[in-house]
Structures are given as structure tokens and as C-alpha cells.
Amino acid sequence: MIVNASAPGKAILVGEHAVVYGRPAIALPLSSIRANAVYRRTRSPLTLIAEDLARPPLKINADAIESSDPLALMVGLTMQFLGLENVFGEISIQSDIPIASGLGSGAAVSAAIGRVIARLHGTNLPDEALNRLVFEVEKQHHGTPSGIDNTVVVYELPVYFVKGGSVEFIDIADPLWIVLADTGIASLTRDAVADVRSRVHLAPCQTARLFDDIGAIVIESRRCIERGNPTRLGELMTANHRLLRALNVSSPELDHLVDAALDAGALGSKLSGGGRGGNIIALVDKESAPAVKQSLVEAGARNVMFTVAGQGSQIDDSD
Ligand code: PMV
């Protein structure tokens, strides 16, 4: 017997970091890059195989629920939620979401694992419950996650997210043409988040002002998305990047790719996710898309991906 389940990657459009401190943020699912979990029945106790995550096979023990390993913990949490005593077989994780690059790999892998275990037992794991379980695992990845990654990845819809608030989905009036470009530098979100936390302690008022400015950008961005104003949305994204630089979560490599996108005619560009490394996101239009992609490749981006958000299925390609 073979059972499959999957979950998408994600990109934060605006609002990262400030979202950890109660300001809103907007994130988009990336439906064409996915983590897939494939279950195969065997007579042995459950083993997770995740070569794409550069990990050796992992045998799941009875104490998975207490594991410090995020994958084992997700299995343990799912089994507990579904009331399963034990699971036999093999789950292989195949993922085309780059790790440690701000595209939601950890949350997507967790969501796919939860879904496949539920599916193979012929039961449904409602999105709301799955979201809570993935959030528990995200705490192990990030320390103090806002919850935006698990939310967008589990529901696979554009979200306007406020920590602790109810989930709000956004209607995209005009499809958003997006280019993502990877610096090739792996970076741990938890480190960037910890540095921002130190800054909050050292300069609380100044940092709160930066968060407020980011929050205002997110609120206006939502209006632009819902009313179809890409030109203004682009300006807001670039302004958000300047504020993230002021928060000290950018890097010369990220700034270089942001400039390359803007110089080639992008409507706006910024880092996306935890920062320091990982990806930039650029908003483009039909005319500027090829030049922006080309300029990012020439500027040294490792992987350039094009996607359209808000038109049902997404069109993607990678260089
Ligand atoms: O997982 P990443 O790298 O896309 O970053 C998540 C966004 C942060 O705001 C930096 C952290 C969080 O938990 O919201």
C-alpha cells in the first residue's frame, strides 16, 4: 500500500519580524514547490527517510512526542492527536523546497507528515488541528515563531496574519507576478529572530517604531492586493526592505539582489523571511519579468523562480 500527502512552500510578501511582535504580515503559498510524504507499508516500526533534507533514516520510538527532532515530534504529535498506539512502515520525504532559505520547508514537511499519517489511517486531520500541531513543531525550529509559516502552508491560501488572531484569507484582485531569487546562503531564522529580540531589549522605542512602520506598510499592502494596485504594492515592498535593513536582518548579498531586481524594472523588492541569507522576493509585471529574472541570474542568484499568485493554479519555472 502506498499513500501520499503534500504541502506547499511559502513566501512572506510583507511584514516578517514585526509579525513576531504583534504587527500583521502577509504570506503567499508557493503551490508548485512542495514537500511530499510518501508512505509505504512494511512490518517494521515506522522509519522516516528524508534524503532531500540531508538526513539519515530516522526510526520513530514510543517517546517521539518528547523528541527534540522536529520530524519525530511531528509524528508523535499526530499519533497522539489521532489516538494511535503505533505506526508501522516507512515515510519518505521528498521536497523541492530549499531548506534554511525562508520558503517554509520545515512547516511544509511537518504538514505533509501529519497528513500522510492521518490519510493512511483513513481519517482526516482538519486544517485547524494540523495547523496547531505544525505550530508546536515550528517552536522547535524557531524558538518563538509567530505562526505565519504553519498557517499559510497548512491552508495553502494567501493570508493576512496577526499573531494570536483568527486566520484571515486575502482575495487577490489582480494576479501578483512574483520572482524569488536565492542568495544561496543558508540562514537560520531563529538566529535572526534572536538578534531582533536583543535589539528590542537594547532600543525598545526605536525598534517598536520600526515595527509600527512595517505594520502600516502591511495594512496598506493588503488594500493594494485587494484592489489591484501593483505599482503601490511594489513601492511598499521596497520600503519594507529599507525597514528590515534598519532592523539589521538584511545582508550585502540580499541588498545586492534587491538592487538588481529594482534596476531591471521590478515594481518592488525586498528580502523574504528571516533574512541574512535565503531569498529575495520581487514584484514584477509581464513586461519586466524576463529582464528581472535575467538581472538576478547575472547578479549571482543561485535559483530564480517565477510564480503568479492569485490565479488559481500557479505557473512556475526555475533557472
Ligand atoms: O521561516 P522564515 O525564515 O520565512 O521566517 C519567518 C518569518 C519571521 O517573521 C522572521 C519569524 C516568524 O516566526 O514570523
Task: Compute the CA-based radius of gyration.
Answer: 19 Å
- What is the first-to-last residue Cα distance? 36 Å
Low-confidence stretches: 313-319
Largest sheet: 7 strands, mixed
- The helix-strand sequence is EEEEHEHHHEEEHHHHEEHEE
Bound small molecules, deduplicated: (3R)-3-hydroxy-3-methyl-5-(phosphonooxy)pentanoic acid
Strand content: 15-25%
State mean pLDDT (0 to 100 scale): 93
> What is the overall number of helices?
9
Overall geometry: globular
Helix-strand makeup class: alpha+beta
Number of extended strands: 12
Helix content: 40-55%
Summarize the structure.
The protein is an alpha+beta fold. The protein has helices spanning 70-82, 105-120, 127-142, 148-155, 189-202, 204-227, 230-246, 252-263, 289-298, and strands at residues 2-14, 25-45, 47-49, 58-59, 88-95, 159-161, 168-169, 176-182, 268-272, 279-284, 304-309, 317-318.
